[in-house]
Specification:
Layout lengths: L3 H5 L3 E7 L6 H11 L15 H12 L4 H6 L1 H6 L4 H17 L2 E8 L11 H21 L5 E9 L5 H10 L5 E7 L11 H9 L5 E4 L5 H10 L4 E4 L7 E3 L5 E3 L1 H8 L4 E3 L1 H6 L11 H6 L4 E3 L4 H4 L3 H12 L3 H14 L4 H15 L3
Parallel strand pairs: 1-2, 2-3, 3-4, 5-6, 6-9, 9-10
Antiparallel strand pairs: 7-8
EC number: 3.5.4.4
Family: Belongs to the metallo-dependent hydrolases superfamily. Adenosine and AMP deaminases family. Adenosine deaminase subfamily.
Cofactor: Zn(2+)
Length: about 350
């Protein structure tokens, strides 16, 4: 069986990772002290003052089985990233942390509209994050490593700035931004509320993914694909609701599930996060197992490394323990992700043939 160290040494691809969900606990402490943000109280009733305890608080608060409660943890990470310096620091550290885990390609998403409280403009937010990414990539390269990182700009689905953020993504697409996304609570905020933004992106030949089928069911997935034209599905866990498995183990796919599989719609699955938010009962019961068996285009992701207390290597290792996956399975997940990246075809192919496949040879 593959060990965690084995997996850390393999090149990996990450498509669904939130910048504001991946801060180092120590960095949260530093930035909170700089800006005067009050962190949550610890067991002693006083604001938490050490990194280990703060990391535990984030994991415990996120481990509630509620997406709404899970999202509340972001109030602290967003509050401390309202300046150019803070955004550049967390972006640089994000790249360094991913590279240390063996990630060779990553698309990291965040909502620029949530970082304007100290007077930054949307363009200044994107520029600060890109400066951090560039610094992180340069540091990794100088140390003999390899990583490619792109931004995904997210609009909050309960707000009304999606057109503005879509235009921002197009303006920056040749300067480090790979695409667009919408995120936030699904219930009551269907993707069709942002149809103008998605139609604009399609006219501009731009890429976008949509959080769908995590806390809400098949209608959210159907709208994301058939009304909005999403290239990928963020999570997409509830597509399993359109699959019936009889007593003999034979699976019957409904019309939507068949469409998703037939057209190779990538599913950005995040096992640990899905268990934390109640989208899956456990890793062993995660729909990823059945969807992988049926050969949907499954990819494995971290979602929020701070809240989940996880890395992509640990996500893979949890699947190895739960489903007995081997090297061939992990290569399949990784190639799936690289094929699905919002990166030019020749660049994807080079990473698959020159970096990923050689490392996964037995």
């Amino acid at each position: 069986m593959l060990t965690l160290d084995d997996i850390r040494g393999l090149p990996k691809v990450l498509l669904h990772d939130h910048l504001d969900g991946g801060l180092r606990p120590g960095t949260v402490l530093d930035l909170a002290a700089e800006c005067g943000h009050q962190l949550p109280d610890g067991p002693d009733g006083k604001p938490i003052g050490d990194a280990s305890t703060l990391g535990e608080w984030f994991r415990d608060a996120a481990d509630s089985g509620s997406l709404v409660r899970y999202l509340e943890t972001f109030a602290h990470t967003v509050a401390v990233t309202q300046t150019t310096g803070a955004l550049t620091r967390v972006a640089r550290e994000c790249v360094e942390d991913l590279a240390a885990d063996g990630v060779v390609y990553a698309e990291v998403r965040y909502a620029p509209e949530q970082h304007l409280e100290q007077g930054l403009t949307l363009h200044e937010v994107v520029a600060a994050v890109q400066e951090g990414f560039d610094a992180g990539v340069a540091a990794v390269s100088a140390a003999g490593g390899l990583i490619v990182v792109r931004q995904l700009l997210t609009a909050m689905r309960h707000q009304a700035r999606s057109q503005e953020i879509a235009e921002l993504a197009v303006a920056w697409r040749d300067r480090g931004v790979a695409g667009f996304d919408i995120a936030g609570a699904e219930a009551g905020n269907p993707p069709t509320r942002h149809l103008d933004a998605f139609e604009y992106l399609q006219r501009e030949n731009a890429h976008f993914t949509i959080h769908a089928g995590e806390a809400f069911g098949l209608p959210s997935i159907w709208e994301a694909l058939q009304w909005c034209g999403a290239d990928r599905l963020g999570h997409g866990v509830r597509i399993v609701d359109d699959i019936t498995v009889d007593e003999s183990g034979e699976a019957r796919l409904g019309r939507l599930a068949a469409y998703v599989r037939d057209t190779r719609v990538p599913l950005e699955m995040c096992p640990t996060s899905n268990v934390q938010t109640g989208a899956a009962a456990s890793i062993a019961e995660h729909p990823l197992g059945e969807l992988t068996k049926l050969r949907f285009r499954v990819t494995v992701n971290t979602d929020n490394r701070l809240m989940g207390g996880t890395t992509l290597s640990e996500e893979f290792f949890a699947l190895v323990l739960a489903f007995g996956y081997d090297l061939d399975d992990l290569r399949w997940f990784t190639v799936n992700a690289m094929k699905s990246a919002f990166l030019p075809f020749d660049e994807r192919l080079a990473l698959i043939n020159d970096v990923i496949k050689p490392a996964y040879r037995r």
